[in-house]
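User: Okay, second chain of the day. Same drill as before: sequence in, structure tokens out.
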Amino acid sequence: MKYSFRFSQTKHLLLVSVLFALSGCFDSSDMTDQKTEQAVTELSAPTATNLDMNIYKSPTCGCCGDWVTHVSQAGFVTRSYDINNLTQLKAEKGLKPEYRSCHTAVSKEGYIFEGHVPAKFIQQFLAEQPEGALGLSVPGMPVGSPGMEMGDRYDSYNVLQINLDGTAQIYAHVQGNH
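Assistant: Same drill. Structure tokens below.
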């Protein structure tokens, strides 16, 4: 899949910040977000959709970073935060344990995208905004889902629509090759 990127104002500001940091003129401690413990990175790949998303993840999870890259390349503007107590955040957002995975993304509209949800389903969901929905989830960490690639192996999995009343239903099925 190919993506085209324009040098955006956000990328320009990020580049200037990096240059200041390298020159010693920028105090990176000013970037700490006290509420979420540590602001880590801002990635953007703006397109016509210009979708904003905050992503909360563990500081030690590499697959989460790969998923952030996936959604950024699909046109989302992301802000990624490493936090130590993801369980508390997930509970505050209304996610039952059976729907949880390794990271939680929150759209500007307040929808939750839990785990390795493919960007195309997030875009579809945001366009539809189903009534009574909290968001989408891919529980666990299925092999072959975005961020969990392992060569040519792809497991089948369901993308669940999580509803505000705590129920869930299958939103999409991804067919694997194993």
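Confidence is low (pLDDT under 50) at residues 1-49.

User: Thanks, on to the next one.
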